[in-house]
């Protein structure tokens, strides 16, 4: 029986060449100008899945960017694993902060540097290459399907509808996803829960035109001042979110579970040093990992208004804008939270301005139970490759579609990802370590055998 | 004796052609790319002053953009009037809100539409054309000097030094300035006071890199949230500025003077309707005109940070920025206010962020006394042309250099301007009514004779 380590060693240059070709297509889903790139990327992945040994693969339209589907059915009575991933990436601005072209991957210091190197082109590729190894060496005993979408970074707005339409096509026993992080370079980690998301945009309008801040200053509401005050009022001095009803559905985590979480390795000094901050900041009464893992949060993701150029301009703008998102925990419902936010912002706005609140994408929180056969198989795969039991992680991030899969397809997802906080996903200078890229491929190949055994129990 | 009305009628097309040539040069002083345009504009004005009949005119370097100086000495024993104006203009963004090219003036609805149509190219041109009329018709009995600068919109950072150097060259009995507004299309107005200005820029830094708002949200300070809270804390619920010491030097206006001010025609409903606002907003206990005329104010002129593009991005940015200006009243000192602001912002910043506060330009408030011979001459000129005594105005705007003239040159300035609030100076779609452009020229010609008589009293 061929050895995966040998196979990787013999094929690593090709693996990287193929991944780099994928990364070079700037598939930014939030920017309309990249629409043609989305289709090119989908075609590229279809070809990768076919070359890896799938029986079939195709680019299937959705109401937004297309979804790549592929499958290999080795035995209709064997378990079926559905690989989910996404081929779209985040915007690259501020582009001037990148040390090299975000869409021209380079290898430096043992890492691949590029937008999408990790999230999710690099991680998703670990699944395609693991599949390739098992097929080419005759070791695949499960059925495998692929569902690779192009709108994850904008909240997968069309995948729920697509899943409903293609429910039979993607039917499977478990979904395996590599789009999360490990807590150390060689510390295997399985994400047990994800936060949900409600993402809002606020527009505050004062006068119907930009005004001279001398002639009108002090007498007419300045929408930036008003917006700042409204944002400030959303979080109180204890770090609690001050939107009425916000915490009503929050599932409080037991003291026992909090004690479990506290056992995960974490060094606050190193954390602060890595971010170059003197102090962390958050909800009173909770640790840093609890603040991101089991508590909701509210962040302004963007703000703009007035004169933002060089020098000075004495203007009171007509409008000010903010993008504000909230991370949610079990059992918060994102539509309800969006409604509470909107009602609150409309209620606190002074009569001197007009306020418009709209919801961008949102998503439900998710929990991956540790007794699930897929979770147990993933744990064993981690032990095989990293030599340790994986750390169970309560992640602060969101993959809203995971909750949708459970609701629409009735399938649980296993979050076995190979990222790391140092990879700067969503930021300038995203990277992915070669170590984790290759170990990820290896761990994925081990998952299948263990999953087959677990399903027989 | 030739009549000014006839002269205007016969030369109006030429006047407009010449003004349009001036407006077409995009002399935006706050943007470095326009540096060559500043020199071109100065040369254009030098030529205009020479053609109008000056003995001499030249473009004199300063440490920034050059100053245009010109003069006609008709009698060394006669009074000398120094005309001050500025040839630089404000930026034009957001440029997509303009109905026509900001630097291609058009006449529509009885107005000239362009950046600088009013502020100050159009208004300054009323002085050059009045001078031309008096010279060409042999009616000039005063000496006239011109000092036209190119950095007013960025706070005249180099004119104080220039005035010290050329103090003898620009020596005069009074300074006449057309760079202010009338309170109605045909309601003559003399500005009696101007507010001062302190203009600050604030940079708030959280982590050393943009962060994923899911992974870090709730545990690491978000500089936008922090900045919003800091801005909100600067103004209390009564509209008072909450910076310690801010009001210490404010000259409170007497009940008698406030009663005088209240007699100026003002219709709050029309004011609100023109701005399309449901309510005004400002310091408790003061009227709208008091809020801009005799009370200081604090406005955010620009704010930016995080993702401001299309769609959504779940980022906690590393930095957030704001441009914040304060309008000052007699006896506030702008350097002291800048220091108070900086100290306050540094004091209220939480330890989870770093704050950098820098001062842009500033300027002192100014008062123009009604018993001054220049003020009385301007009043009479207004009566001649508009048929009414001018309204004395406490303006909310700032012309910081006016206080500098008093300090360095020892000369009082008379603020006889022809703008109007509907002209949208500093905003998209700036304009200047032809009515006020031509009446301005007319009123300026009347000023000189009255000033000569007042000086003989």
TrEMBL record, chains A, B:
Sequence ranges assigned to domain Peptidase M20 dimerisation in this UniProt record: 194-351
Keywords annotated in UniProt: Hydrolase, Metal-binding, Protease
Membrane-spanning intervals of the chain: none
Protein name, entry field: Acetylornithine deacetylase/succinyl-diaminopimelate desuccinylase-like protein
Pfam family, one: Peptidase_M20
Molecular function as annotated in GO: metal ion binding; peptidase activity
GO terms under biological process: proteolysis
